[in-house]
């Protein structure tokens, strides 16, 4: 059985400013850098190593991955966040209530179905390759839509209302199915390091 560690990137300037951030990008804040280093320390304390490491091509994900591990890694476009079209960089208050469905299509963005399918397919493709323990650094909506799709196979009852920066989702991958086994928030990482 293979294990996927799916991590959201650290806090960015646009996260701080409450701006819509899909394919557009913003640098990590100092807090975001510290969050990534906390993930690094969390994995180190558990002596976790990865056979392969991946991130989206977005700077915020690449930089987060580089802070977590210095091992060779691969950047893939299909690991990018939801594309929000012309609403990229706008204030988050113009977002509709969840679920977004096809809201962004009329602005040149992706439909929820197309985005979710992209997330599922790229993660399956990655896990079908060599390696038992895989690290992927991606994005909040990516983690959310991926989790939602595999919810019926979840091995944990835990739910999170929001996906914090540097939240870790741990999945077991077997027979082409992802089973969510654990969700670890940034706060829990910090508490675990103090023990």
Strand content: 15-25%
Rg on CA atoms, Å: 16 Å
Count of DSSP E strands? Answer: 6
Q: Please identify the top-level CATH class.
A: Alpha Beta
CATH topology-level fold name: Rossmann fold
Low-confidence regions: none
Spatial order of strands in the largest sheet? 3-2-4-1-5-6
Q: State the order of secondary-structure elements, H for helix, E for strand.
A: EHHEHEHEHEEH
Assembly of the depicted chains:
single chain
- Helix percentage: 25-40%
Largest sheet: 6 strands, mixed
User: Can you tell me the overall shape?
Assistant: globular
Annotated CATH homologous superfamily: Phosphoglycerate mutase-like
Taking the alpha carbons of the first and last residues, their distance comes to 29 Å
Helix/sheet category: alpha/beta
User: How many domains make up the 3D coordinates?
Assistant: 1
How many alpha or pi helices? 6
Estimate the mean pLDDT confidence.
94
Indicate the CATH architecture.
Answer: 3-Layer(aba) Sandwich
